[in-house]
Amino acid sequence: MKQMLIDKKDMAGLLTELTGKMAVIAPVMKGGNLLFEPITDGQEAVLDSANTRLSPKDALFPQCEKMMSFTTDRQSEEAFIMKDIEPLEQGQVIFAVRPCDAAGLVILDKVFNQGGQAYEDAYYLRRREKTTVVGLACNKPLLTCFCASFDKGGPFATEGLDVLLTEVGDKYVATVLTDKGEALLKDKKGLSEADSASIDKANKIKDAAVKSVDSGVATDKIKGKTTMELFDDPSWDAFYEICIACGVCTYSCPTCHCFDIQDEVIDTEGVRMRHWDSCMFPIFTVHATGHNPRPTKKERFRQRFMHKFKYFQEKFDRMACVGCGRCIQLCPVNIDVRQLVKRMNS
Amino acid sequence: MNNPYIPKPVRIEEIITETEDRNLKTFKLVFLNQADEQVFRYTPGQFAELSIAGKGEIPIGIASSPTEGKHLLFTINKVGVVTTHLHNMSVGDVMGVRGPLGRPYPIDELEGKNVVIVSGGFAFTTLRSMIAYMLENRDRFGNITVIYGARTPGMLLYKDQLKEWQDRDDIALNVTVDKEAEGWDGKVGFVPAVTREVAPSADNAYALVCGPPIMIKFTQPVLTELGFTPETIIMSLENRMKCGIGICGRCNVGPYYVCKDGPVFTLAELNEMPKEY
Ligand SMILES: Cc1cc2nc3c(=O)[nH]c(=O)nc-3n(C[C@H](O)[C@H](O)[C@H](O)COP(=O)(O)OP(=O)(O)OC[C@H]3O[C@@H](n4cnc5c(N)ncnc54)[C@H](O)[C@@H]3O)c2cc1C
Ligand code: SF4
Ligand code: SF4
Ligand code: FES
Question: Which residues of A245-256 are buried (b: 16+ CB within 10 A; e: fewer)?
Answer without folding.
Answer: eebbbbbbbbbb
